[in-house]
Amino acid sequence: MDTVLTAKDAATPQAAPRVEYKKGICGICPAGCYETIKLVDGKLESIKPVKGHPMGILCTRGAYSNEIIYSEDRLKYPMKRVGERGSGKFERISWDEALDGIAAKIKALAAEHGPESIANYFGRGSFDISLNNIFAVRRMHNACSNIFFPLGSPNTFGAGSLCYVSYGILAPMTTFGKPEKMLSIDYEHSNLIVVWGGNPPTDSPPFKWKQLLAARRRGSKVIVIDHVRTETGKIADEWVPIRPGTDGALALAMINVVIEEGLYDKEFCDNWTVGFDELRQYVKEFTPEKAAQITWVPAETIRRLAREIAATQGVGFCSYTGLEYTNSGVQNIRATFILMAITGNFDQPGAWCFRMPAPPSVTRNVIEAPKGKPPIGADTYPLFCEMTDTAHALELPRAILEGDPYAVKALVICGAAMMISFPQPELWRRCLEKLDLVVVIDRFLSIDAPHADYLLPATTLYENEGYMAYPFGHVQYRERIIEPLGEARSDVVTFIELAKRLGYGHLYPQNEREVVDWVLKDGFVEPREFRSNPDGFPTPKKEMQYRKWEKGLLRGDKKPGFPTPSGKYEIASTSLARHGHDPLPKYTEPKEGPISTPELLGEFPLVLNSGLRLQSTYRSQHLNILGLLKLQDKPQVWMHPRDAAPRGINQGDRVYVTTRRGRVPFYANVTEDIVRGAVECNVGGGGPQQKKEWREANTNHLTDHDNRDPISGFPVFKALLCNVEKDHAYDPPAVERKAENAGANGRTQSNGKH
Ligand code: SF4
Question: In whole angstroms, what is the distance from residue 490 CA to residue 423 CA?
Fold first, then answer.
């Protein structure tokens, strides 16, 4: 019945909106920033960082929480596919129907093909600590979960197959025996910070950025080595542009200078390393002049940087995942670590340091991987599988499409967009079509979702009860800020309910409240106290000590040395040698590039790079959120003016980026903030709910499934060849033409700038 307002109704004063302010944890991404949240009639309206709290940070995405939570595009009800795979036709069903149906199909497939045929994939949208610790994978802290180990399947896959594990696990473990998460930069005492392979303002949370800016204010110098001048590059004392994928050659050339000129820490190299003499021999070929040809960094700059790093006391090494995506990603990262260590800039005041050993603040529910068949990828990337306790997703197509080494039949995908994240989306589409069961769990309709048999709606973390345990030593309660939208559920609850139906629900706490109680059971704070102190609790800390290898603070047996097979800092890695890799930090020229494949340069003369993070997106998320799209409404390819000019390309032009594998439309960002000869393509495009220009721009049509780092198995995302051509047929929408004529769309301004 229509509602009719009478004159009397209209005159009745409306009840004033109920405004409430609450302190709580941001629920957009898993970083857990701490906010003062404004609620109006129970709806989240805005958030502001809590001043004075270590996690009082707000990023651009968090500022748009309201738009993300209440977006019309949110999935709110469980659905079952009714049309063809990929048709996107679903009907609404109840949670019980969905979970009963999924469990029945999993049981049937496991009985017919073995439990190892059932797999799960966890993407970056699923890294909530409450989930990761209850469905814990022993060696993958907060970066993957597992739901099928108790069923008998070793096949837990995660975004670690193409992100972070090279930098965070493989390189550090094979060099000094601890993962990256056990270290932090001693910013307070740094005199020079070398940012190499990272851009802290786009981290989630941008915690290091706050520290780096404070160090800079205190007088620390900042040098950024990167193919693009990032936000960090813009505030740095020096930006050193480099050819993407060649960072290993630069590090080795700097090591060459340091050794040849006797600038290294002799005591450390003599007493605490293995492989120094072999390294001395190996780097002889990496003269600055030779490295200049490889890296495009002038020889004089290489010498000057090497001398400065060696001469400065307290060099903070600030890195992240930027060096992972070339044919020797793990070894290149190791080379940068070794450069810092042999110049006396490791676990020293102002340097990259081990955190002081401390008991865990929360308990993890680790269920060991089954001992039956090895995980997918163990035959090709054994070190990866051994050091992460997970399977390798790059090998998933081989298992699904060819049954090699055995068939995978069911895949539960949580918080991911596999057809956007991995090279060659068509290959992944074929995989999803071939599977007998695909379950997608997400907040929005991902690119994989139309191929699902069941689509399950996930909450934002604002709708969940949980907790945070921060690596710098702080635990905090996550209060539910708003009720779940529609029938969306926390992933923890979804998996607990699925586990019950598969016969092993007793292995987990039974609901979100029990999860919080359970993880605190061995801790230093009672659940009741925990819940009633929203600011959280610092965990017990020990005073910082440096040079921990001398003091027996690194090894389980408390003896001096490093927790490596040799007990030393392994310049020559025992684990790499055991798996048939070169033990030294050997540089490999990118397999597809100006030096290895000069015959391709005629057609593809530019180095293709992708993966630069944007403030307005979180991987492939948020490209449907209008407020965030205003910050950048189209996918860009960055190119240098001297590469753009001969192609007749101007700022904002629609262009095609082409490789041997595909052609993708982007919009030109002509800028001197990128090294000449390389281009940088935005990633994240391709999702069905995204703005048209982004939807058309799935960068991974350009990349190569088979071109990988042989140690990590990571795809080469940052060192391929491409060309860029103007789309002469493009007819910009009328609104854009009007703006162009008025010189108001940024083109005029940018041309002036460049
Ligand atoms: S980094 Fe994540 S948790 Fe922090 S404000 Fe941004 S979206 Fe929220």
Answer: 30
Tokens of 611: 């993966």
Q: Which residue out of 25, 58, 470 has the highest number of ligand 1 atoms within 8 Å of its CB and is therefore the one to mutate?
A: 58
Q: What is the model's pLDDT at position 1?
A: 34
d(C-alpha 725, C-alpha 607), whole Å? 14
Which fold would CATH assign to domain 598-753? Answer: Barwin-like endoglucanases (2.40.40)
Q: Which residue of 59, 207, 443, 478 sits with most ligand 1 atoms within 8 Å of its CB, as the best mutation to test the pocket?
A: 59
Higher-confidence residue of 98 and 9: namely 98
Identify the architecture of domain 17-69 in CATH.
Single Sheet (2.20)
Instruction: Say which residues have a Cβ less than 8 Å from residue 75's Cβ, sequence separation at least 6.
Output: 442, 443, 444, 445, 455, 456, 457, 458, 488
> No. of H helices and E strands in the chain?
28, 27
Q: Taking 50 as the threshold, does the pLDDT of residue 751 lie above it?
A: no
Question: 410-439, pLDDT tens digit by residue?
Answer: 999 999 999 999 999 999 999 999 999 999
**Size (the chain), residues:** 754
Measured from the CA of 31, which atom of ligand 1 is nearest? 3
Distances, alpha carbon 656 to alpha carbons 414, 636, 691, in Å: 32, 11, 18
Residue 7, pLDDT score: 42
What confidence tier does 734 reach under pLDDT thresholds 50, 70, 90?
low
- Tell me what percent of the chain is helix, strand and coil, each rounded to the nearest 5: 35, 20, 45
Q: Which residues, in sequence order, are bridge partners of residue 538? A: 474
Instruction: Determine contact, residues 122/158, Cβ cutoff 8 Å.
Output: yes
Tell which atom from ligand 1 comes closest to the C-alpha of 61.
Answer: 7
* Site of tokens 């050997």: 586
Q: Calculate how far, in angstroms, residue 58's C-alpha sits from the geometric centre of ligand 1.
A: 6
User: In CATH, what number does 79-156+369-464+485-524 get?
Assistant: 3.40.50.740
| H or E, element range at 258 | helix 247-260
pLDDT at 691 over 70: yes
Domain extent listing, the chain: 17-69, 79-156+369-464+485-524, 187-350+547-578, 598-753
Q: Give residue ranges with CB within 6 A of ligand 1.
A: 26, 28-29, 31-33, 57-59, 61-62, 204-205
CATH number 3.40.228.10 is the correct assignment for the domain at 187-350+547-578: yes
What residues are paired with 456 via a beta bridge?
A: 441
Over residues 521-543, the pLDDT tens digits come to 988 899 999 999 999 999 988 99
> Which numbered atom of ligand 1 lies nearest the CA of 25?
3
d(CA 140, CA 126): 13
Residue 28 reports pLDDT greater than 50: yes
pLDDT single digits (tens) 570-600 = 999 999 999 999 999 999 999 999 999 999 9
DSSP SS3 for 97: helix
CA–CA distance, 246 with 607 (Å, rounded to integer): 11
Q: Residue 50, exposed/middle/buried by CB under 10 A (0-12, 13-18, 19+)?
A: buried
Whose CA is closest to 705, among 493, 421, 473? 421
Considering only CA atoms, which residue is closest to atom 8 of ligand 1? 62
Does residue 302 contact residue 250 with C-beta atoms inside 8 Å?
Answer: yes
The pLDDT assigned to 622 comes to 87
